[in-house]
Specification:
This protein has 213 residues and is of the alpha+beta class. The chain is 24% helix and 27% strand. Strands 2-1-6-5-4-3 form a six-stranded mixed beta sheet, sandwiched between helices.
Length: 213
């Protein structure tokens, strides 16, 4: 991840792109997400209509992590969220070998392409940034529609005097049980983020360069 200050406009741009869909080469081109509702999936499409039982994530991540990440219930939601959770689990474990990723999966973070294949994506989980600074993940919330899901979550950071947390919004598209698109925007926080929801409208994160850190 590049250490850039997060701008609210970036989140708005991501949500707009997800809402309307795009067709540019290398950019998200999946069916648009409908109205976002916590933990709800709208019409099933493609692989989501499979008669096969949905994945559980068992054996692909620790039971502890699975309990806090796989928080949806319907089969349609599980078909998207469980593969996405294998990616989130790898951020914490630094082991990308169990990520359910398509061979040509791509990842964009704050507008920069950081992976263009499953091999690159899985290898990145063991990079110095993750192994040195990631201390844990919490407050994962899901918004699911069709074959796409958006996760909001907090990364807690260690070994950094300036960065205490990272607030992340990440979109996943899943086809036939494999992640084929990941798009993230994030903010480095100079104070420990309290939660990823802030239902009372309070500040979640004090961005770097905004007066502290």
């Amino acid at each position: 991840m590049k250490r850039t200050r997060f701008l609210p406009a970036v989140v708005a741009a991501l949500l707009l792109a997800v809402a309307v869909g795009t067709t540019a080469a290398g950019a998200p081109s999946a069916s648009a997400l409908g109205s976002l509702g916590s933990g709800s999936a709208s019409s099933s499409a493609g692989s989501l209509g499979s008669s096969e039982p949905p994945p559980t994530g068992e054996g692909l991540m620790s039971d502890e992590f699975r309990a806090k990440c796989v928080t949806v219930e319907s089969d349609a939601e599980l078909r998207v969220v469980v593969p996405a959770c294998t990616y989130l689990a790898a951020i914490v474990s630094h082991d990308g070998s169990k990520i359910l990723a398509a061979p040509d999966v791509w990842r964009i973070e704050n507008g920069a392409n950081t992976a263009s294949s499953a091999e690159e994506l899985k290898a990145s989980m063991g990079n110095d940034w993750f192994t040195t600074y990631v201390d844990g993940m919490r407050d994962i919330r899901w918004y699911v529609s069709g074959d796409q899901a958006i996760a909001y979550y907090i990364l807690d950071i260690k070994n950094s005097p300036a960065i205490k947390s990272v607030q992340i919004t990440e979109r996943f598209k899943v086809t036939d049980g494999l992640i084929d698109e990941i798009e993230a925007v994030f903010a480095y926080c100079s104070t420990t983020a309290e939660n990823a929801a802030a239902p009372d409208g309070s500040d979640i994160c004090e961005p770097l360069g905004s007066g502290q850190g």
